[in-house]
Each structure stands twice: as structure tokens, then as C-alpha cells.
Amino acid sequence: MGKFVVGIGNVLLRDEGIGCHVVGALEGIPLPDVQVIDGGTCPDVLQLLEDVDKLVIVDAVRGGGMPGQIYRFRPEDVTLEQKPLLSLHDMSLIDSLKLMQVRHNVGDAVIIGVEPKEINCGLELSPELQERIPQIIDAILSELNTSPNLSLGERNKVIV
């Protein structure tokens, strides 16, 4: 059984890639017993995880808030319009997570969503989201019940 943080997103579309940028920052923080995974645009990566005690997924989420607003919810909190799947390539993150929960032993799963500002071509996050990375990391660490032995200054050095 293990703890996993999975970042989801497309780094070619600015804020859509927030999950990948956050897990990139997390890789510089010593987190014993936590696997950090860049899932990119493939939420199917969840199917490769087995025996999960805690799963934290980080992704861009349009919730209607201000850019950079952080949301916390569980997969069961999301209601989706039911549509027939024409292909496994039509699966959403939530579909993939629900399939994972059926096929594998999954403990607690939480999604940390971040309200995007810009989803268009570009590699950089908007300044609003870049500024929020320390708070997003704090939310993840809180979910993992873990605290690295880094000062805020050291953590900011890792992120930059």
C-alpha cells in the first residue's frame, strides 16, 4: 500500500498543465513513502497504480472561481452527464478513476483542482497560478499528512 500524487494536464496549454507543473515542483521535495507521477494528458496512468492507500490528483478545474482558486473534492462529489463511450480514448479523469477503484484496491482518493486563467498555446503558467504553487503544495502535503523538513524559503527555491 502506498501514497501517490498524480499531476494531470497538458503543459502545452498554459494553465491546463498545472498538475504537471506542481508534481514537477514536488519532485524537489523529499517525501518519503510518496510516489510522485506526471500523468500528463493520460489519466489512464491511474490504471497502473495498485494497492493505493492515498491518492491525490492535481488538475485544472473550472469551478467558476478566481484564477488560482484551489478546490478539494472527491470523485464521488462529481456528477457527470452520462454519455456512451465510443472508445477507451473517450474516458475522462473521473471515468478512469472510477475504473481504477473497481479494478484495484484504492483507499482515499482526493482531487486538488486549480481554477485556470488561460488555456491557450504556451508553456508558462499564468502569474496567478505560478504564485499559488506553494499553497497547492501545502494542500497536497496536508492530504498526505506529511510535512517535509523545509522552510518556506527552501520550498520556494525548489519551486522556482
Q: Name the overall outline.
A: globular
Give the CATH topology.
Answer: Rossmann fold
Spatial order of the strands forming the largest sheet? 2-1-3-5-4
Q: Which band does the percent of strand residues land in?
A: 15-25%
* Series of H and E elements: EHEEEHEHH
Q: What is the typical, i.e. mean, pLDDT?
A: 80
Class by alpha and beta content: alpha/beta
Q: How many domain regions?
A: 1
Any idea what the radius of gyration is? 15 Å
Number of helices: 4
CATH architectural arrangement: 3-Layer(aba) Sandwich
Range of helix content: 25-40%
**CATH homolog superfamily:** HybD-like
| Main β sheet profile | 5 strands, mixed
Span of the ends, CA to CA: 32 Å
CATH class: Alpha Beta
Q: What low-confidence regions span 5 or more consecutive residues with pLDDT below 50?
A: 85-91, 149-160
How many runs of DSSP E, i.e. beta strands? 5
Give a concise summary:
By secondary structure, the chain is of the alpha/beta class. Helices cover 29% and strands 22% of the residues.
Give the topology.
Blueprint: E1 2-8, H1 18-26, E2 34-40, E3 52-60, E4 70-73, H2 93-103, E5 106-114, H3 127-144, H4 152-159
Parallel strand pairs: 1-2, 1-3, 3-5
Antiparallel strand pairs: 4-5
Helix pairs in contact: 1-3
